[in-house]
């Protein structure tokens, strides 16, 4: 594929700034954090799940609260309506796995080979009490106030956390897989879904082994699989009826919907009658209702927060893309993601997205190490909507897409250092070819490009190191012509993110915890309005990516792990 280098020239001009009045930025609500605002905000502490081992288990206590790992450093107590009721420290070492189960009035936690307990009535912030035992694994279900447990010495037994009594019933062999432990009503403990142990008898192999991750819940065994697959089995591990949630991995020919936030379920809880909850590897919880007629779970509510400051793309209809689906503008804090797909954008953090000419979501991402460009409708379930683009800069951060008067659409993608590429796109956002690779001459000792925008008069705007650097683009060159970071008595902090819509530049000022709007036209920028958390109980904290469409914008309020909906009035 041919490409050409763009010539770069430096022109030292300053943008003309003035102050306008009469506009205001209104708060329109919260998305992505079921706790919404104030003391009930859900907050995950440490969220690098992909490199820090697995966390399994989801508990439901007699007081009506859910217990789940909220990150790699904490445990959460949540109300089923999404509010955070308590936050408890539970830091684990790198690559350790963890398990959690509610047993009567205690939460039992395993982190690595350590065992802890925590009363379900403990005040928020209480540190779990370590038990003097070393363990390999615990069951994710309890029976009559007891759990199944395998010690670090591979002794299999039944454990009562209230009395700290452990009754040995067998010995696992070297080489046995101890990834799951189940306990049943008759005192049977099954390890790895294969070996059955019971007092006063030799261990036996289960007639129908189940080696995959699973959990005993409400008289059934639920098997966990990739692509959000939940398969219901009876207590003999035989399907009854089989896949009841997710399943586009091929387990089920009908390919039920799936959500990338729950791509591999790690725990379940029964909330009474036909109501259940399931948790995935990033800590987001799905509240489910079982439909007997359809023999399938139906998703009703999403609990948790946004787990990383990912791509957000807003369209003219108010749909907000995040991670693996979208929310409507009218949705509330605990609304489910729609347009479910297994695709998730965890590989590159904080990368800017855009819309194609016909309204498709576009953004760069890595798929198993291969740089690609995503182009897909908001509600499309197909996964064949990306193109390989080897020329994408390493670890891209900023992206802008625009139409040419006579020619294909153009996308400019840049990384933090200012390494950039200009791509030609089809109307649906599909990659056509690489037009040029170049370096943005930012005139900064340490560039920190976060985002790109384009003014109505065709200038490229680059947010880097707290400045907006303005470039003029022609067929042969991209030239910096001006830069600015201040206006009458005020200035940006050291990190900003930008987006443009209908001649208005929205600026997310990270260090100053605010959003500022300017009217940009003909080389001038007029201050329109500023948002400093008006209407919020919990003020903005480290706001990052922002995207606008029409008079609306969506902001990643990362310090509070939520999205904020704003409109310019």
UniProtKB/TrEMBL annotation:
Domain of life: Bacteria
InterPro entries documented for this protein: 6-blade_b-propeller_TolB-like, Quino_amine_DH_bsu
The keyword Signal is assigned to this record: yes
Organism of provenance: Puniceicoccus vermicola
Keyword Signal found: yes
Protein name, as recorded: Uncharacterized protein
Assigned keywords, A-Z: Signal
Signal peptide start-end: 1-20
């Amino acid at each position: 594929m041919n490409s050409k280098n763009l010539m770069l020239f430096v022109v030292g001009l300053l943008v003309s700034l003035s102050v306008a009045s009469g506009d205001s930025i209104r708060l329109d609500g919260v998305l992505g954090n079921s706790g919404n605002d104030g003391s009930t905000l859900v907050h995950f502490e440490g969220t690098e799940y992909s490199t820090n081992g697995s966390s399994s288990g989801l508990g439901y206590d007699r007081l009506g609260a859910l217990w789940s790992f909220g990150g790699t450093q904490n445990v959460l107590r949540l109300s089923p309506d999404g509010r955070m009721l308590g936050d408890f420290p539970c830091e684990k070492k790198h690559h350790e796995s963890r398990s959690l189960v509610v047993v009567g009035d205690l939460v039992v936690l395993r982190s690595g080979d350590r065992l802890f307990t925590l009363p379900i009535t403990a005040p928020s912030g209480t540190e779990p009490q370590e038990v003097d035992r070393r363990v390999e694994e615990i069951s994710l279900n309890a029976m009559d106030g007891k759990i199944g447990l395998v010690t670090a010495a591979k002794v299999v037994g039944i454990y009562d956390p209230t009395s700290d009594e452990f009754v040995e019933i067998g010995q696992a062999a070297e080489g046995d897989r101890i990834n799951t432990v189940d306990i049943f009503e008759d005192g049977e403990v099954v390890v790895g879904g294969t070996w059955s142990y019971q007092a006063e008898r030799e261990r036996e192999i289960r007639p129908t082994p189940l080696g995959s991750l699973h959990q005993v819940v409400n008289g059934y065994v639920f098997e966990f699989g990739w692509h959000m697959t939940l398969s219901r089995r009876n207590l003999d591990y035989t399907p009854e009826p089989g896949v009841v949630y997710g399943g586009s991995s091929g387990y089920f020919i009908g390919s039920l919907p799936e959500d990338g936030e729950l791509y591999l379920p790690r725990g379940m809880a029964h909330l009474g009658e036909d109501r259940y909850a399931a948790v995935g590897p990033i800590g987001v919880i799905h509240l489910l209702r079982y439909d007997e007629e359809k023999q399938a779970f139906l998703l009703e509510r999403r609990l948790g927060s946004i787990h990383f400051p990912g791509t957000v793309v807003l369209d003219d209809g108010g749909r907000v893309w995040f991670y693996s689906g979208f929310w409507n503008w009218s949705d509330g804090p605990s609304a489910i993601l729609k347009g479910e797909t297994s695709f998730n954008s965890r590989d590159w953090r904080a990368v800017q997205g855009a819309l194609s000419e016909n309204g498709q979501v576009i953004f760069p991402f890595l798929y198993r190490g291969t740089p690609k460009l995503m182009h897909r409708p908001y509600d499309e379930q197909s996964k064949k909507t990306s193109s390989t683009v080897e020329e994408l800069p390493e670890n891209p951060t900023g992206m802008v897409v625009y139409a040419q008067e006579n020619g294909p659409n153009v996308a400019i993608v840049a990384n933090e250092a200012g390494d950039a590429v200009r791509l030609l796109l089809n109307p649906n956002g599909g990659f056509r070819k690489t037009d040029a690779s170049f370096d943005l001459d930012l005139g900064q000792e340490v560039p920190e490009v976060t985002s790109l925008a384009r003014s109505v008069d065709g200038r490229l705007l680059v947010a880097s190191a707290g400045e907006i650097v303005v470039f003029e683009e022609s067929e042969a060159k991209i030239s910096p012509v001006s830069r600015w970071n201040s206006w009458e008595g005020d200035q940006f902090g050291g990190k900003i993110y930008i987006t443009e819509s209908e001649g208005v530049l929205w600026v997310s000022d990270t260090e100053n915890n605010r959003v500022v709007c300017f009217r940009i036209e003909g080389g001038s920028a007029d201050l329109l309005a500023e948002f400093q958390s008006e209407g919020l109980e919990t003020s903005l904290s480290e706001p990052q990516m922002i995207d606008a469409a029409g008079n609306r914008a969506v902001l990643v309020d990362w310090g509070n792990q939520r999205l904020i909906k704003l409109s310019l009035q």
